[in-house]
Amino acid sequence: SSVVLATILGAMIAFDMGGPVNKTAFLFGVSMITAGNPEVMGPIAAAVAIPPIGMGIATFIGKKYYSKEGKAAFAMGLCGITEGAIPFASMDPLRVIPSLMVGSIVGANIAALAKVTDIVPHGGPIVALMGGIEGILMFFVAIIAGSAITAVMVNVLKANKYKKSEQENEKVAA
Prior knowledge:
By secondary structure, the chain is an all-alpha fold. The chain has helices at 2-15, 20-34, 41-61, 70-78, 86-91, 93-113, 125-129, 136-173; strands spanning 117-118, 133-134. The chain is built from 8 helices and 2 strands; from the N terminus they run H-H-H-H-H-H-E-H-E-H. The protein starts with a helix and ends with a helix.
């Protein structure tokens, strides 16, 4: 089923952001292009952009939780460079990585269900602008939806973390 495959590939792409799990999923998608199945690479092309774009959006709406690297992450996401989310994951892996994975899974599934294809061995909006994506509208819907979910989820998790820290500080002060 395309949903099962998109779920697995979306999770793999976001799990280590350019590491061996990400590259395994990505190279699987590239091999599917060469085998004449570009519809497998479509969800991957959407999923690679979601972690950095999602974290970029998260920094714009939750400024108090982050330093200034959000603009760079957002720009890297537009170029299909998943590694833009690594600084965020290294600072808070328990909140960031699950958020990235959920957003990428949602985006990959939207792209899979819409039968988005990618004939170029790369991802992100830049590929769409260069003509490598078929189903471009749903490709952008997938990236926007996945990125929004990532941003909201990570900020909710961070808000809960800060709320607990404030409660603990109040107990210590009392």
